[in-house]
Write a structure and sequence with these properties.
alpha/beta; Rossmann fold; 17% strand
Length: 328
């Protein structure tokens, strides 16, 4: 390879490494009265990786034994605080939640192993509690892996009974990461491609392309999984931020082709649904209300329906947590 080709290739590498959605701005509100509607806690847990859906240093979980728990897993460049407002939406309906945090640059199997162990400890500590695992984006990949037979190689106990919900997961591999999986290019670039992929994404660089073993062999769902609700997002023409009527920050991160996987969808417990929503829009942030996702979760029984007498208050809550009516 000539020196000119070498440096030309170097110039293109950063474009291949734009593999994550923009970091979500955590939505919040000044009066979290929703917590009073939760079951009274009778248990305090300290489980590695698990904690409340916020970014506070105190990661102890306070839960009620026997009550359902919604466990949420953030995506690339995210944090537990990403789901702060969604956890309050659940709380308004009397539903407990928790969030799993992981090293964003770790190999995805390592993150899935940590989630698997956290799930088991949570199940052991809360017997009789129905568990729902909800993962967004990269968190969707990690969540499914954690409850798959492929993860049985992780030294651990069997997967506990759990319902799985994945949102905008790139189960076919990330198109922008394709060069990271081209072994011929690793040779041609004298290792530059592999080095750049590792620098840009960390140890997970070998897991995120369509050619990776992680994507090609996702494993079957474990017997403990009752259902996999697979929510794909049609993100075409979506915009996260506009100025003067023009889009200055696109919300199109993964195409439907990147989210579709015949192997993942072949399991009879997998129910695929599609939403026309941007990658950030679907879960919401400080400026976007995730009403499409909330309505879908209600229809599917993941989030309880608001009683007729509380519908107006429920709608106001969403506006207060996410939208223009939000107060800091």
């Amino acid at each position: 390879m000539t020196r000119r080709t070498f440096f030309a290739l170097s110039a293109f590498l950063p474009a291949w490494l734009a593999l994550c959605a923009p970091a979500l701005a955590a939505a919040d509100a000044s009066s979290p009265d929703e917590n009073r509607l939760l079951p009274t806690p009778d248990l305090v847990l300290e489980i590695p990786g698990l904690g409340p859906c916020n970014d506070n240093p105190d990661r102890r979980l306070q839960l009620r034994r026997g009550e359902p728990v919604k466990l949420m897993v953030h995506g690339c460049r995210g944090s537990a605080g990403e789901f702060r407002s969604l956890s309050r939406v659940f709380a308004f309906q009397g539903q407990q939640s928790a969030c799993f945090s992981y090293d964003d640059r770790a190999a995805l199997d390592d993150a899935a192993g940590g989630l698997r162990r956290a799930l088991q400890q949570l199940a052991d500590a809360t017997p009789g509690s129905a568990l729902t695992l909800i993962g967004h984006s990269q968190g969707a990949l990690i969540s499914r892996r954690a409850v798959s037979t492929q993860a049985l190689s992780i030294p651990d106990q069997a997967v506990p009974a759990v319902e799985l919900v994945t949102i905008s997961g790139p189960f076919a591999g990330i198109a922008a990461a394709a060069p990271c999986g081209w072994t011929w290019l690793h040779v041609l670039s004298l290792g530059l491609t592999a080095a750049s992929c590792r620098i840009g994404t960390g140890a997970k660089w070998t897991d995120i392309s369509a050619a990776s073993h992680f994507i090609r062999a996702p494993g079957a769902l474990s017997p403990g999984v009752s259902r996999h609700l697979k929510i794909d997002t049609d993100e075409r023409d979506s915009c996260r931020r506009e100025e003067g009527g023009r889009c200055v920050e696109s919300d199109e991160i993964f195409s439907l082709a990147e989210q579709r996987s015949p192997t993942v969808e072949a399991d009879p417990r997998t129910q695929r649904l599609e939403l026309q929503a941007g990658h950030v829009e679907v879960v919401g942030d400080r400026h976007i209300e995730p009403r499409k996702l909330i309505a879908l979760l209600q229809r599917e029984g993941v989030l309880r329906q608001a009683a007729p007498s509380r519908q107006a208050a429920f709608s106001q809550l969403i506006s207060r947590l996410y939208g223009p009516a939000r107060k800091d």
